[in-house]
Amino acid sequence: MSEPDAKRGTAVWVSRAGLNQLIANLKAQGYQVVGPRIADGAIVYDAIEGISDLPSGWTEQQEAGTYRLRRRDDDALFGYNLGPQSWKKFLHPPLLRFFAAERNNGELRILPSTEPAPRYALLGVRACELAAIQVLDRVFLKDAFVEPNYASRRRDLVVIAVQCTRAAPTCFCRSMGTGPAVRSGFDVALTELGEGFVAQAGTERGEQLLGSVERAPADEELIRQAQEAVEQAAAQMVRRIETQDLARRLQEALESPHWDDVARRCLACGNCTMVCPTCFCTTVEDTSNVRGNRAERWRKWDSCFTESFSYIHGGSVRTSVRSRYRQWLTHKLSWWVDQFDMFGCVGCGRCITWCPAGIDLTQEVSKLVASG
Ligand code: SF4
Ligand code: SF4
Description:
Shape: globular
Bound molecules: iron/sulfur cluster
Number of domains: 2
Radius of gyration: 22 Å
Low-confidence stretches: 1-7
Structural class: alpha+beta
Number of helices: 13
Helix content: 25-40%
Distance between the termini: 62 Å
Strand content: 15-25%
Order of helices and strands: EHEEEEHEEEHHEHEEHEHHHHEEEEHHH
Mean pLDDT: 95
């Protein structure tokens, strides 16, 4: 097998053994490689040792309020779409200890968290998920207030993207302009074809990673097949949101009676915010031991669907489910545009699949806009 130097933007063919080698090389460089694997009846993201941990031959069936693992009729490693977890759990963890305080013989000591940030290599990042990381970057890294915990996890992040070659019925990234083709924000992008991958480096580090594994030139036919596979995923997408002038149109629909209709179905469970790759809200909790000489301050994910989330002195601002659903949806698709100059939704469809009431953001938006 000839091994030309991998160049940024130059496609090469990498076998499964080559991908395994790439994972091993990342681990040897001190990265914790996290990728898709099966746990609790779903495809989740967790630490992996090699390609034997990947969900070979598995896919999923999903619709509004429904998710089931299904066997494929081949042994594809990335033949699924999205599960309930997003990469945000590694970059913006659900639970984070800020500091502890101890009192001994009347002396108070503050113990800051000194654990170094993990060095993550993410394997299997889809186009909409790359867009979600860019949204989190905008929120946590830009302007005056940089979130240091996110920044430390993001600094040395390696991203191995995988292009979608099929779409789930809940996907609508195409209409949000975030997929299914992977365009930027990755070190290496893979398109799975049979027993290997068409691979492309997006950064100098990606070139080095591809340069360290066995590879061959990808000929025009392989590149055409890879493009066709991604186009097929785009053509399969049935859901969409019309984004033209959407921020303004939703603001005109703030008093629509359709909010009451959604509120009658919504359980205010907050699932949609937990699975969303861009929802970033948190709360702070203090805990103490029973002896009363040690306390800890923790940050944990919160949801705008809880009544306590909008609590200020004297009570909560958003006491009705109507007001909370309206806050969530208009923040994602309207106020976020004012605040961050981008949508807070990347069209991953997780909030549709994992809503126990089967509430479908795309349908609610089109009804709200029509009623505004
Ligand atoms: S709002 Fe729903 S579809 Fe949009 S990014 Fe969040 S989970 Fe995905
Ligand atoms: S929209 Fe669905 S997932 Fe979100 S809070 Fe309501 S019932 Fe729960």
